[in-house]
Structure formats: C-alpha cells, structure tokens
Amino acid sequence: MKVFLQNIWSLIKVGKIPCRSTNCKAIILRRTASETGGYCMPCNRRKFEEFDKANRKDINLFENVMDPVEIIKIYHQPKDRSDPLMHYTPYPYPIERVYEQLNKSDIPKLIFYTINMLEAGEKDVAIDIAIELVSLFNLDFTAILEKLMSINEYYPAYLFRAARPSIRDNILKRLSDEESGDETLSRNQLFEALAWVGDKKVVRWYAEKSKKSFPHPSPITDHTKAAGWELDKESNRRNLYYSMCYNLEKQTKPPSHQIHPSFQSGNDHCRWCKKKLTNLIRLDLSDKRLSFIEWTKPYLTLGTCLRCVDYSDRYFAAIDENGDSIWSSYNNIEPEAPEWADELFEPLKNCLVLSCEPRSAYYGLNCWVPNLSQIGGFPSWIQHYDYQHCPSCHETMIFIGQFSGEDSWSGDGIYYVFLCSKCSLSATTYQQS
Ligand SMILES: [Zn+2]
Ligand SMILES: [Zn+2]
Ligand SMILES: [Zn+2]
Question: Cα of 5 to ligand 1 centre, how many Å?
Fold first, then answer.
C-alpha cells in the first residue's frame, strides 16, 4: 500500500494523475484531466458516445417518400446542423440511382427547383443538382445556364456541355466584351465553358484563335482538351473519347463463361519488375455492344503492369496480332518504386461484367460517383486531365476505358486506358485524390 501511494505521489509530482474511470489503469496529464473532467481520452470518448447514443435524435427525412424528385430535393437540401444530437439518416442508396429513375416529366420539376435554389442564394445545392442532370441527360438546360451566367458562375465548365446556341453566343459576346476592356470575368472559365459547348461555330472560333497564335501553340486550345477534344490538322473537331459507354459491373463470383475476361494475368511479363502483366480486360469485338470501338482485330486486350503503373507517369503496352497485350519498348524510364511496393501487390479477385445497356458517356464527369469502371465514355479525371500521346505516331491517344481502384486491389484511385489503334499501342495512367 505504501509503495502504491508513493507511486501515485511521484506521478502527481510530475503532473500526472490516474484516470477516474473505475476499471481504467491509464495515467494522464493534469492538463488532459482538466479538459476531460478527469478521464483519459479513450474513456472520455466512450462517455461521449454513450451520451450520444442515449440522447441522439434520429431524423429520417426520406421515410415514406417515394417520388424521386422529392428524394433528390431532400438529399441536397441544406440540413440544420446546429444541434449535434440530431442525426440525419443517410439515403440508403447512391443518389445517382434515383437520378437514373427520373422520367421526362420529372426533369422540368428539378430544373425549376434548381433555378429556385439559385435565386434563394443556395448556389452549391443548385450546382450539385445541375451536375447530376448534365452528366446523365442530353436535354435542354438553357434555363439553368442562363441563371448561372447571370451570376457569373461558369464552374464547373462541363455544365455547359452541349449548351444551346443562345448560351454559346452569350459566352462569345462576353469574351469579346472583355477584350474591349471589361476584365471582370475569368477568361479561362469562359474559354473552358465554350470548349464544352464545342459545336461547329465554337470549333471554327478555336481554329481562328490557334491560327493567330501560330507558330506558337495557342494556350487556349488547352481548354478543348479539358472538354475532351482537339483540333486536327484540318482544323476539325477530333474527339478524344467515345460517346458510347458501357459500365463494368462488379461481380464477386465470375460467371461460368465470361465474354470479356477482366483482371486476369497476361501472357507477357513486365521487363521492369519481372511480374506478369495484368489484363485489365480482354475485349471480344464480335460483341455488338463494342462496335463503336475503332479496332480491326477480333480481340483487344487492355493490359498493364499494375505495380509499375502506380509509379510511372504512364505505362505503354503493345497489342500483338492476337489482340494480346505485351511489353512495349516505349517504356524507357524505369520508375523508382519503394521496396514495399512488391509486398502490397496482390492478385485481383473481382470480376467485371459489361452492362447490358449503355449509360451516359458523361456519367462520371463528377469523379465522386460510385461504379466508375467503364468502357468508352468520358474519363473521370480525379486530377487534371491527362490524355496521352502515342510515342510512335505522336497523335493524341483516344480514351478507351477506366477501372476504378475500388474494383481492383489498390482500393482507390482510377486507372485510365488510352489507345492508338493505328499503332496498336495502349497507355495506362493512374490518378488518385
Ligand atoms: Zn480511462
Ligand atoms: Zn512492372
Ligand atoms: Zn500511334
């Protein structure tokens, strides 16, 4: 007993005291004790959790709401967070699924609501809804865009995807007003919005601009790439992605016969790490769904080294006569990978199946939506857009598909695959947040 008291006394002298929970042996700083009422941090947290559990008020705003428009409104509506004991039950499914259920008569209601939100100063709510609508539907959103322009809001630029001529002319007018002195608007945002409109008149406008800056590359043509296109040698629009898109649905058990086997080990090895290449997917082009892909051989394998691609800017793979993915000698600078890179490398367990129906090519414009793995469509850039140049013919390669880290061993990030059909070369890149 004496020894015990001595111990306590020596602790008190150095400014430490025991936690006041009965069964806890932790010794804590006096400063901590004064903040927690004498408890150690874990006990304090437990106390809070218990209190929270006993007193929390669960509010399910979605209860008995069946109308998708109402569900969407509730989902985006700003919640009162002033009471920490109020817990809003989250919507149990990804909200994108509700958007996909909207029918033709629902959309005008949501457009009306979005405009109301903009008028009420709830810009973030309005833009969140607009992003979903523009990503999923090819409809006329002029009313929303006019409202956004009236408050000088051009971000994100892809909201202007396929905007109508009146909006386009309005943007062009603002750009020319600005040239004559009015510097209040952000020119870059206007350029990017215009690139997203991307119709014939816009293409001509960009062609003019790039002619003027010749022989220097025009900095503004960069914006067209952000919108997924570039000017070809004849000053025509060349798309860097396919407007058809099929998503790749994750299955934990592979079906007995897989038309397009995914995540399988390839035949060739990576000359850098000596591991087998991974076939992200082997596409069978006799499948009618894939007729949009420019490729003349019966098979097309998108392969990469999943270990080395994480540490390189890009990983090239050649595609042989059989459509198999093999090592490419264009991979010339071996990346420096940390030692643990090998330990983390695991074979892939999931299997991806091409969806029966196509989905919007722009589904993944906002890269935070679920189920991003897809063939075709627009890339879901997490960072800045990063189209690859073919090392053989130097043309910009076409985006052919992406594989979400969630569907592979890495758990996060996205693998993007680009293709030059002419040179039978693919390039894989990886981005993460
Ligand atoms: Zn304790
Ligand atoms: Zn490798
Ligand atoms: Zn090429």
Answer: 19
Spatial contact of 253 and 352, defined as CB atoms under 8 Å apart: no
pLDDT in tens, 110-140: 999 999 999 999 999 999 999 999 999 999 9
**Cβ proximity of 341 and 310 under 8 Å:** yes
Residue 239 CA to chain centroid, in angstroms?
A: 20
Tokens at 136, concatenated: 């999923």
- Model pTM score: 0.85
Could you say which ligand is closest to the alpha carbon of residue 44? 1
**Nearest bound ligand to the CA of residue 310:** 2
Among the bound ligands, name the one nearest to the CA of residue 32: 1
- Strands 237-239 vs 229-231: parallel, antiparallel or unpaired: antiparallel
59 by DSSP, 3-state: which? strand
Q: How far is the CA of 285 from the centre of ligand 2 (A)?
A: 27
Strand partners, 430: 415
Residue 374 neighbours by CB distance under 10 Å: 26
Instruction: Say how far apart CA 207 and CA 189 lie, in whole Å.
Output: 19
Could you say which residues of the chain have pLDDT below 70? 1-14, 178-185, 214-219, 221, 343-349, 409
Phi, psi of 120, deg, nearest 5: -85, 5
Q: Count of CB atoms within 10 A of residue 205's CB?
A: 18
The token duo for 34 is 């004064």
C-beta separation of 237 from 265 below 8 A: no
Q: Give the distance (Å) from ligand 1 centre to CA of residue 406.
A: 38
pLDDT tens column, 304-336: 998 899 899 999 999 999 999 999 999 988 888
**Mean pLDDT across the chain:** 89
DSSP conformational letter for 249 = E
| Interval between CA 34 and ligand 1 midpoint (Å) | 14
pLDDT at 337: 80
- Strands 27-29, 16-18: parallel, antiparallel or unpaired by DSSP? antiparallel
Can you tell me which residue has the tokens 């029966």?
Answer: 356
What is the whole-number distance in angstroms between the Cα of residue 273 and the centre of ligand 3? 26
Q: Where are the beta strands (DSSP E) in 215-272?
A: 229-231, 237-239, 242-251, 262-269
DSSP letter string over 148-168? HHHTT---SGGGGTT--HHHH
Q: What pLDDT score does 393 carry?
A: 97
Q: Give the separation between CA 409 and CA 427, rounded to whole angstroms.
A: 20
Tokens of 211: 């002619």
**CA of 418, nearest ligand number:** 3
Query: If 0-12 CB within 10 Å is exposed, 13-18 middle and 19+ buried, where does residue 184 land?
Result: exposed
